[in-house]
From TrEMBL, chain A:
Domain (SKP1 component dimerisation) ranges: 114-161
Protein's recorded name: SKP1-like protein
Entry similarity comment: Belongs to the SKP1 family.
Stored PANTHER family: SKP1 (PTHR11165)
From TrEMBL, chain B:
Full protein name: F-box SKIP14-like
GO cellular component: cytoplasm
Organism per entry: Olea europaea subsp. europaea
Record domain F-box: where: 295-342
Length: 163, 579
């Protein structure tokens, strides 16, 4: 038996984040999360669905994204206007700091939301693009774990590209 | 094996056997290659007053040879020690004006932080054994023995200074003051218990820096000491930071400092002659400081999601990202899916040769599907053959503007490739800008690519001429980019017109569709400018009057946001060929 409530006429699912916060989402939103859709289709969405890899902060964002996309797509507006609307929404939605972006990206991967995954990946790629190594390390807080020798070797490789 | 002035009777008396000859090993291929010439030159110049002794400067750089064990014993029994100190009665003590003794004996052992590595790692780089006595410069005040031994450095870094009464031909006292300071500083820092390993290298680095500078000074190539000092200062800062942090990070920091040190040496040796080397050493330096900072943060495992983004990066950024850290490096190298579609254009296009392209493409491990080389002037037909031979899944080939490729070469390569039944064969080809394409070639290509020329002619997206997209992109569904120009009937790239009145809606209005020779187009928006006003820019590009006005407007008031044209006739300049 799923967690759907008959009161609203709409199926509602409960998603539980890693830190125990429970979100209530409509079916139109939930099915965008491929992981959950499989559960719904298999009628395995028990009282609530535990999402162990996503924190409440990120899950809230993900749900916001899915909600907006679901509403825009079913809003009855013409395709081009909907596209424009989604584009502006996506641009604003991606206007977050890198750490949230990374979390969103891995959440989208885990929850299997293709459009969000691609959006976050593209945004991340545009952040990395044309940056120096040092800038990338700084931006994403990555440690240089090469030994001197390894670093030399890796710098030697394709050195032509950096002349 | 070493610069050995042991014939001087004073030396055995002052230097213990252990330290008489202690190899300084530097893991740096550059050093091994560059040093012999330069140093030899420097010293022999400086030695001009005593040519007879020049041969006794016996400098051996172990090139590719790996010297794992210390040569202490063998060299301690150096036969030179057994020889008379002045066999030819040349009165060395007076002829040598500047030989003053050992400036330093450095024993530098990497075991401290190479513990985890296999010893064979030494084989990866050129071992370098060097002992030299910095005989030309000395100062009596520097009678100080630095002996720093720490838990990270089983082998000590030892510095011996011998005062001498000899004449100074080179006045290096200032440098020695600095060195002294560095040494002292190091001692102070050493008091802080964790920093031992790092600091001993810090010291070493200073010494090396000075040595190199000495060489330069002697070879009269000019001094770059100011920049060195600057470097020293910054590293000092990094070290100080870490000291404050008070963590145990000797190993990591030590490595980075070593990197710094190598960068230093390389630059100094190459000297003023090579700009490239200079900048590369600065690059390394940048890395060093950054690393030091990151060490302090005690974080730094990259987020897994970052690697997801790699598939959206171009070749240049992938190559850049693999230098960031180990896990990125292994991801970029090891994931053939990242290399399934290789697109090379500016700025890499000028640098890509056949060999590096083959190397790059090999990362796809035979899975390459789309290869796009935009204006790569160094790629030859043979390079193309090698790529095709190794990548049976390639279906899209784009080589526009690759001027060294010939149409015959391309045709032959494609014939050989597409005749193989096991491969899908090239389905899409871009050869815009390749010279000498005849109708025969075109027909052969048509057969090879297997498309129907009549069917495809009009069912495609319009291709507009503009600064960033002279060539038809790979993702266009046309099988081949060139076609017969409706006006001159030559096989060329044919552009559509973005101007409102000229859009190709149906076959009847083909009026404004031709190659750039027949219809001159604006470099910005791509519209035809045959019968309207236009301007020629400094780069000999033609701009239609609308775009020119826009440009002027933009230049006049950079703070004013330029309105995009309302009629849709003008397009934003697009510099991205691969979208």
């Amino acid at each position: 038996m799923s967690s759907s409530t008959e009161l609203t006429e709409k199926k509602v699912f409960l998603l539980k984040s890693l830190d125990g916060v429970i979100f209530e989402v409509e079916e139109s939103v939930a099915v965008q999360l491929e992981v959950i859709r499989e559960l719904i289709e298999g009628d395995c969405a028990r009282p609530f669905i535990s999402l162990y890899n996503v924190t409440s902060e990120i899950l809230a964002l993900v749900i916001e994204y899915c909600k907006h996309h679901a509403e825009t797509c079913s809003g009855g507006t013409s395709a081009t206007i909907a596209d424009e609307d989604l584009k502006t929404f996506d641009n604003e939605f991606m206007n977050v700091d890198e750490n949230i972006l990374l979390e969103l990206c891995s959440a989208a991967d885990y929850l299997d939301i293709k459009s969000l995954f691609e959006l976050t990946c593209r945004t991340l790629a545009s952040l990395i693009k044309d940056r120096t190594i040092i800038e990338v390390r700084k931006m994403f807080n990555v440690e240089n774990d090469f030994s001197v020798v390894e670093e030399k070797a890796v710098r030697k490789e394709f050195a032509w590209a950096f002349k | 094996m070493a610069l050995n002035y042991s014939q001087r009777p004073i030396i055995p008396a002052h230097i213990s056997e252990d330290n008489l000859v202690s190899p300084m090993r530097i893991l740096n291929g550059y050093l091994a290659e560059d040093v012999p010439d330069k140093n030899g030159e420097g010293y022999s110049k400086a030695c001009c007053t005593c040519q007879g002794e020049a041969e006794e400067w016996n400098f051996n750089c172990g090139g590719d040879r790996v010297d794992l064990c210390s040569s202490t014993e063998s060299t301690a029994k150096d036969i030179v020690d057994l020889l008379p100190s002045d066999p030819f009665g040349m009165d060395i003590e007076t002829t040598f004006t500047a030989i003053t003794g050992w400036l330093e004996d450095l024993e530098f052992d990497y075991q401290g932080y190479m513990r985890n590595n296999n010893n064979e790692d030494y084989g990866l780089f050129a071992g370098w054994n060097l002992i030299w006595n910095n005989a030309f410069s000395n100062n009596a005040q520097f009678d100080e023995k630095l002996n720093v031994g720490t838990q990270y450095f089983p082998s000590n870094l030892q510095v011996y200074e011998k005062p001498d009464e000899s004449i100074h031909t080179f006045t290096d006292s200032i440098q020695f003051d600095e060195k002294l300071n560095a040494g002292n500083q190091a001692h102070v820092y050493r008091e802080e218990r964790e920093m031992g390993g790092a600091l001993s290298q810090y010291e070493l680095e200073f010494l090396l820096a000075h040595n190199m500078r000495d060489i330069e000074g002697h070879s009269n190539e000019g001094a770059s000491s100011s920049s060195e000092l600057q470097f020293g200062g910054e590293v000092e800062g990094a070290v100080a930071n870490l000291c404050r942090d008070g963590r145990e990070m000797g190993g990591a920091l030590a490595q980075y400092e070593l990197g710094f040190l190598l960068a230093h040496n390389m630059r100094d040796i190459v000297g003023l002659s090579s700009e490239g080397a200079r900048s590369s050493s600065e690059l390394q330096f940048g890395g060093v400081v950054d690393c030091a900072v990151n060490c302090v943060k005690d974080e730094g495992t990259p987020h897994e999601a970052l690697t997801f983004a790699f598939s959206y990066l171009g070749v240049k950024d992938l190559l850049s990202v693999q230098r960031v850290c180990k896990s990125f490096c292994s991801t970029v190298k090891g994931d053939p899916l990242l290399w399934m579609s290789i697109h090379i254009d500016r700025p890499l296009n000028e640098r890509v040769t056949d060999d590096v392209l083959v190397q790059l493409v090999s990362r796809a491990q035979g899975n390459l599907q789309c290869l796009s080389l935009v204006e790569c002037p160094r790629i030859t037909d043979d390079g193309l053959r090698r790529i095709l031979a190794a990548n049976p899944r390639l279906t899209k080939l784009s080589v526009p503007g690759c001027t060294r490729l010939t149409i015959e070469g391309i045709l032959n390569n494609l014939k050989a490739y597409n005749s193989n039944i096991a491969v899908p064969g090239i389905k899409s080809l871009r050869i815009g800008g390749i010279y000498g394409v005849t109708y025969e070639h075109f027909e052969e290509l048509r057969l090879l690519l297997g498309y129907d020329s009549h069917k495809l002619e009009n069912n495609h997206r319009p291709h507009f001429y503009s600064r960033g997209s002279f060539y038809l992109p790979c993702d266009d569904d046309r099988a081949i980019d060139i076609e017969t120009c409706p006006r001159c009937e030559k096989l060329r790239l044919v552009y559509d017109c973005p101007a409102a009145g000229c859009q190709v809606k149906d076959q009847a209005t083909k009026a404004c569709r031709a190659c750039t020779l027949c219809i001159v187009r604006c470099a910005q928006c791509g519209r035809c400018i045959n019968d309207m006003e236009y301007e020629e820019t400094f780069c000999l590009e033609l701009l239609c009057s609308d775009c020119f006005k826009q440009l002027n407007k933009y230049q006049d008031g950079l703070d004013e946001k330029v309105d995009t044209p309302k009629d849709g006739a003008l397009h934003e300049p697009n510099f991205c060929l691969h979208g």
